Amino acid sequence: MPNDSSPRARAREQTMRDIVRIGRAHLATDGAAALSLRAVARDLGLVSSAVYRYVASRDELLTLLVVDGYDELGDAVDTALASVDPTDFAGRMTAIGRAVRGWGLAEPATYALLFGSPVPGYEAPAEQTTGSGVRVVGRLVEVWEDAWRAGAIAVDDEPLKPRRLSRDLARIRREMGLSVPEALIARGLFAWAALFGCVTWEVFGQYGTATFAEPADLFEQHLAALVESVGLA
Amino acid sequence: MPNDSSPRARAREQTMRDIVRIGRAHLATDGAAALSLRAVARDLGLVSSAVYRYVASRDELLTLLVVDGYDELGDAVDTALASVDPTDFAGRMTAIGRAVRGWGLAEPATYALLFGSPVPGYEAPAEQTTGSGVRVVGRLVEVWEDAWRAGAIAVDDEPLKPRRLSRDLARIRREMGLSVPEALIARGLFAWAALFGCVTWEVFGQYGTATFAEPADLFEQHLAALVESVGLA
DNA sequence: TCGATTGAGAGAGCACTGCTCTCGTTTTGA
DNA sequence: TCAAAACGAGAGCAGTGCTCTCTCAATCGA
Questions:
Q1: Would you state the torsion angle of the CA atoms of residues A49, A51, A57, A62, taken in this order, to the nearest 10 degrees?
Q2: In which residue ranges of chain A is pLDDT below 70?
Q3: ipTM of model
Q4: Which residues pair with B153 in a beta bridge?
Q5: Strand D closer than 7 Å to the CB of B57?
Q6: Which residues of chain A from 22 to 51 reach within 8 Å of chain B, CB to CB?
Q7: Among A61, A124, A147, B83, which is least packed, fewest CB within 10 Å?
Q8: For residue B169, which of A221, A215, A212, A198 has the smallest C-alpha distance?
Q9: What 3-state DSSP class applies to B222?
């Protein structure tokens, strides 16, 4: 086993970084389905079989890019949150939404890899991706939890119907150590899915022929609806 | 030119139907990216080059499947609407939502083709797909328009800010001949994107490890939030 | 009815893909 | 110093989309 700081180990790390970098570039220009290990190898100046020393398969390269994407999105959200007053709960939620939209529009191919169609025959291995994948929703939950504790959210505190749903939500509440009521968890799950729905709609061009001078204006309206949907002022 | 009802023409139509049918089967089992003209040809008992007599390219087969999918989804929505009291506006909107979710869960691969990542290098030709693609949102608009005319929707009738957004919404209103106020158009666009966001989240498994005894229960909560978001009782 | 045109299918072939295997060469750690 | 490990190259297999040419049958006009 080579030492961690041996020339060979450092060269290996550099090659790994190059593979991810070139892979990201191909992803951005050609999309996930067209991502080719052979093309990455060519750009690296290697023969195709050589990259299999670093990446076990095309799917593993996809996993690397998935983790890379989740991390970058998480960083974008955290950066946006850094300049928001922590007691401005609606502002924090809005900032998260804007950050997700901004990153999605800037990196549509990676966004599609994370939130678009599952690549057939490929399932992102949970142990490698969930850690980075839950960062955004984690930040959202933090906002709702903080807002609830501060009494800034108006929502019913009664159990939802039917009881089996109430049980599931209560279990999630317990497992995550939350103090927000069940109804807010349900509303949070809605807001989470709806937020990405709005961003996906715009990134994938599903609005179709409807054109807007400044699409961000419409998104701000959507954000207001999202903030409203969880009972934030 | 062969007659429209000549044996050759009828055989050709049958072969076209077979191609779409087999293509749908492969789509369902292997996904869009793995859709292979050669495999379709094998299942048809033809050599690969022969199917090019019917379908110009793999992308054209995808287009056929896109149109087929939009039509099937539109039929599902129309069927669901047929058994709803037309004056029950919230019920109509709920029925549309349930139909979209039900179809998406039943046909995840086709759903992914329509609402997931755009296939790289492939853009669905608008002239062939938009006709079927706007059916669902068309039904939604009908509900909101009817509800507004019946006075069943509570929403501000003042122009939205900024003015450039107001102009765009007013233009859409004029072009579609709507009587609903601008704010309701914006809320409708939100509800549209959010609805498909919720369905996509479930079809693509983005809820992750959070499990529900009956996911439909959660979706019903989401539907309530959607109905609420457009100002319907 | 006959000849020309058209459509359909088969087969070969090109360039590409993911991936495996073997073969030398270089670097590493004991 | 030397065996082991890592590395890169190359060949090869099976699959892909797509094009080209060939043959044969169906169709249509005169």
A1: -140
A2: 1-2, 119-122
A3: 0.93
A4: B232
A5: yes
A6: 30-34
A7: B83
A8: A212
A9: helix
Contact status, residue A15 vs residue A54, Cβ threshold 8 Å: yes
How far, in Å, CA of A95 to CA of A81, rounded? 6
**B209: confidence class by pLDDT, cuts 50, 70, 90:** confident
What pLDDT, on the 0 to 100 scale, is given for residue B74? 97
What average pLDDT does this structure show over B207-233? 94
Asked whether residue A52's C-beta has any atom of DNA/RNA strand C within 7 A, the reply is: yes
- B70 touches B104 (CB < 8 A): no
Confidence of residue B109 (pLDDT cuts 50, 70, 90): very high
A197 Cβ under 8 Å from any chain B Cβ: yes
B172 in Cβ contact with B186 (< 8 Å): no
Per the listing, tokens 């296939």 go with B119
- Euclidean distance between CA atoms A76 and B188, whole angstroms: 29
Taking the complete model, does pTM exceed 0.90, yes or no?
Answer: yes
Residue of B nearest to A197 (CA): B197
Q: Residue A19: which residues within 8 A CB-CB, separation 6 or more? A: A40, A44, A51, A54, A55, A61, A64
Which residues of chain A does B197 touch, with a Cβ-Cβ cutoff of 8 Å? 193-198, 200-201
Q: How far is it, in rounded angstroms, from Cα B15 to Cα A112?
A: 34
DSSP letters spanning B43-70: HHT--HHHHTTT-S-HHHHHHHHHHHHH
A118: number of Cβ within 10 Å: 20
Mean pLDDT over each residue of chain B, to the nearest integer: 93
Category of B121 on φ-ψ map: left (φ > 0), alpha (ψ -120 to 50) or beta: left
How many C-beta atoms lie closer than 10 Å to residue B208's C-beta?
A: 13
How is residue B226 written in tokens?
């959607």
First-residue to last-residue Cα distance in chain A = 58
Q: Are B193 and A194 in contact (CB under 8 A)?
A: yes
Three-class DSSP category at B153: strand
Q: What is the per-residue pLDDT for A129? A: 81
- Helix, strand, coil % in chain A, rounded to nearest 5: 70, 0, 30
